[in-house]
Inverse folding.
């Protein structure tokens, strides 16, 4: 089928009153906007959905990835502020628990709203970044679609926190996508919540988890009446009384930058969630016999799309060496967590239920640095990137893609953007990284 084109030429309203514009209101975008506004920069946050928080809120991810290196919290600053406030909302979780802490998604929405209000960020919801104008490596204008139609927005510095590096890609800067060998992308997961479960049996009875030998998940996968339960990936947690949030199963062969594929995946994900409810009620009636499907994610849980080509691409060797960097803006200790293709996963599970071939774990107290250069797109001067698509090789991206890291890279990007504005810098490479690191420390970051 040939691709038809149509020209579009009309005058659009332009808002050029901003110092910093952040595209994307997930964890990285929220801390980027808060950090920039905290420094006095006039900051606009553009969010495509109706709430902030991304996967922790609209995506229904049921728990935070670990905030510690096994000994202490290492994701600090604004990351710890968000985490501590979120942890205070789940009274059933021990105050001493710092890893895999349950998330109350409605409460977390309000935490991000409050953070934007406290720091003076202006937020536009239901505002989709649709196009970017850039000349000679400098982004000039963002084009945004919302209830006003198409509008143009302009700032001195931009932060791409879209998760898919949309701003960077639209501006023409190169990106990687998927496995360098064949383009394979990690499968996605459509999270969901079941209510009216038996909390006592859930907490003290048989836990549904793919590493638990008494779990019926493998029988559910084999049951042909539930064809959308395709593998044993089943992570779950309790966000509140008598409900369980699930990060379960996979949607394979999805390129989430393809709108048709993403739309079809959302339908598949909702159908899979219903099959999980029915299968759980059958196989674990003592816990889920009376459960009902109360919510599915408004966002697909996407693990991988674009990764920017940066001034420095974090490597697998960096991760394995626990490498330090003179310009590091945060530390990371999360394990390498690459979700395999369906055929590969099936073979791995048959040999090793933990799928350890796709993982690598640090010892307690170990971590590596993430350099500021990983936030800088190779071909752009006034753009920083935060969150999942920072510059990294694919395998290590399986570690740095998670929410605690996104919160930290977001704060660093937002602070650097504000510093560039204050110093009237035309290129974010000119930000003094030692001063950036010192300012991050002053705001609580852990940079040993």
């Amino acid at each position: 089928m040939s691709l038809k084109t149509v020209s579009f030429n009309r005058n659009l309203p332009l808002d050029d009153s901003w110092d910093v514009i952040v595209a994307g209101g997930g964890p990285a975008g929220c801390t980027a906007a808060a950090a920039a506004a905290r420094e006095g920069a006039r900051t606009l946050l553009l969010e495509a959905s109706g709430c902030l928080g991304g996967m922790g809120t609209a995506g229904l991810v049921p728990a935070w990835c670990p905030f510690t290196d096994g000994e202490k919290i290492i994701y600090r600053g604004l990351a710890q502020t968000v985490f501590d406030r979120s942890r205070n909302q789940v009274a059933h979780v021990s105050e001493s628990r710092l890893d895999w802490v349950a998330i109350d998604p409605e409460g977390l929405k309000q935490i991000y709203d409050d953070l934007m209000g406290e720091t003076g960020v202006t937020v536009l919801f239901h505002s989709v970044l649709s196009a970017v104008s850039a000349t000679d490596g400098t982004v000039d204008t963002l084009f945004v679609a919302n209830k006003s139609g198409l509008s143009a927005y302009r700032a001195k510095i931009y932060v791409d926190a879209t998760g898919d590096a949309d701003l960077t890609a639209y501006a023409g800067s190169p990106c990687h996508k998927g496995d360098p060998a064949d383009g394979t992308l990690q499968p996605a997961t459509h999270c969901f919540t079941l209510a009216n479960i038996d909390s006592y049996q859930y907490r003290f009875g048989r836990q549904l988890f793919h590493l638990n030998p008494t779990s019926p998940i493998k029988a559910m996968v084999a049951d042909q009446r539930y064809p959308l339960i395709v593998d044993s990936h089943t992570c779950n947690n309790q966000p509140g009384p008598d409900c369980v949030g699930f990060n379960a199963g996979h949607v394979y062969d999805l390129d989430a930058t393809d709108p048709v594929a993403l739309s079809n995946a959302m339908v598949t994900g909702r159908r899979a969630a219903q099959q999980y409810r029915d299968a759980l009620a059958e196989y674990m009636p003592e816990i889920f016999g009376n459960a009902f499907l109360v919510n599915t994610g408004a966002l697909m849980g996407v693990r991988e799309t674009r990764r920017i080509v940066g001034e420095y691409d974090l490597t697998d060797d960096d991760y394995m060496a626990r490498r330090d960097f003179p310009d590091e803006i945060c530390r990371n200790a999360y394990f390498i967590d690459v979700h395999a293709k369906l055929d590969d996963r099936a073979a791995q599970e048959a040999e090793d239920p933990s799928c350890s071939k796709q993982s690598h774990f640090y010892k307690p107290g170990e971590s590596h640095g993430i350099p500021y250069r990983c936030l800088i797109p190779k071909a752009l001067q006034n753009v920083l990137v935060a969150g999942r698509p920072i510059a990294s090789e694919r395998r290590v991206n399986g570690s740095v893609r998670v929410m605690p890291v996104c919160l930290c890279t977001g704060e660093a990007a937002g602070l650097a953007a504000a510093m560039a504005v204050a110093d009237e810098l035309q290129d974010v490479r000119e930000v003094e990284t030692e001063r950036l690191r010192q300012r991050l420390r002053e705001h609580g970051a852990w940079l040993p």
